[in-house]
Amino acid sequence: MPMAHDMSSAAKDLDARSPATDIALTQAEREIGAKLPFEYLEFLKIRNGGEGFVGPNSYVMLWRAEELASLNQAYEVQKYAPGLLLFGSDGGGEAYGFDTRTSDWEIVQVPFVGMTWDLVWPLAKSFKEFLLQLAAAGPDG
Prior knowledge:
The structure is a single chain. The protein has one domain: 3-Layer(aba) Sandwich (SMI1/KNR4-like). The chain is 35% helix and 23% strand. It is built from six helices and six strands; from the N terminus they run H-H-H-E-E-H-H-E-E-E-E-H. The longest helix is centred in the N-terminal third of the chain and has 11 residues.
C-alpha cells in the first residue's frame, strides 16, 4: 500500500503512538458529526497523531483521534471559523485543519489567535500531500 508507506515515511520521526482503534475512529467521527477523509483515517490507523519533526524543518503536533472533538471545542473553532476542523498545529501559534466546506476537505493553516477564514492559508489538497510537503520543506518552510 504505497499511500500508507509514503505517509509513514514522511512521519517517521514523530513520537511513537499506538494506532487508533476502529472504536476510537468511529467515536471521533460521531463526535465531529462527519466522516474523516480516507488518507487521514489511514494515518490515524498507522499512528494516532504524533509530535515531532516531519522532514528536517517542519515541527508538528498532530492530535489523536480521541482529541479531535474536544480540542476543536476548546479552541471554539466553530465560533471563529465555522466549517474548519483542526487536527493539529506547528507546536506554536499556527493550527492545521480541514476546510470541511470543500468537497475534498483541503488542508489549511490558520493562526490560533485571531482565527478567522480571512487568515486561512491553503496548504494541500489532501492529508498525504500535506505530510509530503512538510517533509520536503526547506528552512523557510
